[in-house]
């Protein structure tokens, strides 16, 4: 096996605690990091209709959350006219992309997944610098991106392009055909700038739609690299258009334009629900949105407490808690609360913090100064009626001085405290004691979100009760690798209930691609 093939085949997932060969893992990552650092500070254009577009306005400079002196790059700032230009390019490309057919489309998309794997170490290192992800988290995300494309292509194949013969009718032949809507606006968040962008866009593309893509203003570099992958894979001009700029200027004009036939969005509940309410005007249009979570883990008296502490620590503090699936609430039965809490505190105190591009670092910075400020506010709220068990402070000394670092924090709060209801998106988790599993489930269900949830129990009946009664789209039992986190394409569907999602059918699962299409019944009568 060549070195290039070995690097391509080396696989990490979100539940990987280590790689099969950690020395080789770090060697490959260091090579990718060298490349990524050499690319930092470049100027990047918009990509519209396959062409570079450089607005006259001054590019926006993006800095790393690890160190404010590190310039990720300078990114074009689009105006509303560029949105119109991108939508024109998408409209021009959409019919030919649909006519190409699903077989040819998935050939091109599989080229994209192969290119992601070929460049995975470069992509992971760039993402680590831009977002502040650890090495393991970054490589897991790149791998997920490639797997998302391959899984959605497989789903399309298994359904034969969603062309299905219907029941017989006298002298008539009928088929049901799912066809693309046309132009999708795809808007992705900062925390998974490649996997979420790839997941939304690849499903839409495989289904036959074209894309105008706007990444988070915090993470345009990873978005640009995804655009590069699609271009290198051979997607025709106008099929995928890349737009960067200020949300306040181009955000609403993008998804409110009548030329947009569908919307794929991941972000906050407040923003997403406004978009969903306002998106459809004179007729309904699909709005696929994943909108955050306030995810609970339940620890029963019968649980393996070591596994519970490990799984909750990894879910609460992976990517600094900046996951919509992060475990931010823990309900533990009173008889084991003290023992479990001590184990969680011990594990939290052992977390290695620092520059996440370096090996052995688990926890990096939060994304920006606003997130750090929100952390301080949460700590203040926790002290009002609760107790800080570990953490609770900004990290500003030495290596942390120029980044947005906060300590991983565990607090004990009384039931009903406002922090049990509010999504924080921070390395911050709260513990409360409950009498029994039924009370834990009632408390877990009180929030407006319903994305992920986990339980630790050795009793089958307790796990079954949890699955039957928890109001959550993604449920885990006894998951040491991540109490509420770590969904993988084709393994766990990832979609929320209540305020966590809009369709009831999640990404990574068998029903996702079909949501980017609408049904047309075709009947042909004999002449």
Q: What is the CATH topology descriptor of the largest domain?
A: Aldehyde Dehydrogenase, Chain A, domain 1
Q: Ranges with pLDDT <50 over ≥5 residues? A: none
Largest sheet: 7 strands, mixed
What is the number of independent domains? Answer: 2
Radius of gyration: 23 Å
Task: Describe the protein in words.
The protein is 39% helix and 20% strand. The chain has 527 residues and is of the alpha/beta class. The chain has 2 domains: 3-12 and 19-291 and 505-523, Aldehyde Dehydrogenase, Chain A, domain 1, CATH 3.40.605; 295-489, Aldehyde Dehydrogenase, Chain A, domain 2, CATH 3.40.309. The strands form 7 sheets. It has a 7-stranded mixed sheet with strand order 15-18-19-14-13-21-22, sandwiched between helices. The longest helix has 24 residues, at 135-158. It is globular.
Give structural attributes:
527 residues, Aldehyde Dehydrogenase, Chain A, domain 2, Aldehyde Dehydrogenase, Chain A, domain 1, alpha/beta, 15 helices, 5-stranded parallel sheet, 20% strand, 7-stranded mixed sheet
């Amino acid at each position: 096996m060549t070195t290039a093939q070995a690097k391509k085949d080396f696989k990490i997932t979100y539940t990987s605690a280590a790689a099969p060969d950690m020395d080789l893992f770090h060697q490959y990552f260091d090579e990718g990091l060298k490349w990524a650092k050499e690319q930092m500070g470049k100027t990047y254009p918009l990509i519209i209709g396959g062409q570079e577009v450089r607005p006259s306005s001054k590019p926006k400079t993006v800095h790393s959350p690890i160190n404010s002196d590190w310039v990720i790059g300078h990114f074009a700032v689009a105006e509303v006219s560029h949105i119109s230009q991108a939508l024109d390019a998408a409209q021009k490309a959409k019919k030919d992309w649909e006519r190409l057919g699903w077989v040819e489309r998935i050939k091109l998309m599989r080229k994209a997944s192969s290119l992601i794997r070929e460049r995975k170490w470069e992509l992971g290192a760039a993402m680590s610098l831009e977002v502040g992800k650890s090495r393991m988290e970054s490589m897991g995300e790149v791998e997920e991106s490639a797997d998302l494309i391959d899984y959605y292509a497989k789903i399309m194949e298994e359904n034969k392009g969603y062309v299905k013969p219907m029941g017989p009718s006298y002298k008539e032949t009928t088929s049901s055909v799912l066809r693309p809507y046309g132009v999708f606006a795809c808007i992705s968040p900062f925390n998974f700038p490649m996997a979420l962008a790839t997941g939304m866009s690849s499903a839409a593309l495989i289904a036959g739609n074209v894309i105008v893509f706007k990444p988070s203003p915090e993470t345009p570099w990873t978005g640009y690299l995804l655009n590069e992958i699609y271009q290198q894979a051979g997607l025709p001009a106008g099929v995928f258009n890349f737009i960067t700029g200020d949300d306040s200027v181009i955000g609403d004009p993008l998804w409110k334009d009548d030329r947009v036939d569908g919307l794929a969005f991941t972000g906050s509940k407040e923003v997403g629900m406004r978009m969903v309410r306002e998106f459809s005007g004179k007729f309904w249009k699909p709005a696929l949105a994943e909108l955050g979570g306030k995810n609970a883990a339940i620890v029963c008296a019968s649980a393996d407490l070591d596994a519970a502490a490990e799984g909750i620590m990894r879910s609460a503090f992976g990517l600094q808690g900046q996951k919509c699936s992060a475990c931010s609430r823990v309900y533990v039965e009173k008889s084991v609360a003290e023992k479990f809490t001590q184990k969680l505190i011990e594990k939290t105190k052992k977390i290695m913090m620092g520059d996440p591009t370096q090996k052995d670092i688990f926890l990096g910075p939060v994304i920006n100064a606003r997130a750090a400020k929100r952390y301080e506010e949460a700590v203040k709220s926790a002290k009002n009626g609760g107790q800080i068990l570990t953490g609770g402070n900004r990290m500003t000394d030495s290596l942390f001085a120029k980044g947005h670092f906060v300590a991983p924090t565990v607090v004990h709060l009384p039931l009903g405290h406002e922090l049990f209801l509010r999504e924080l998106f921070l390395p911050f988790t709260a513990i409360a004691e409950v009498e029994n599993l039924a009370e834990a489930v009632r408390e877990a269900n009180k929030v407006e979100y319903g994305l992920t949830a986990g339980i630790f129990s050795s009793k089958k009946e307790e796990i079954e009760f949890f699955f039957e009664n928890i109001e959550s789209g993604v449920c885990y039992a006894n998951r040491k690798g991540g109490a509420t986190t770590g969904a993988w394409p084709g393994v766990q569907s990832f979609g929320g209930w209540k305020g966590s999602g809009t369709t009831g059918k999640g990404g990574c699962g068998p029903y996702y691609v079909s949501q980017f299409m609408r049904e047309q019944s075709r009947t042909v009568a004999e002449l």
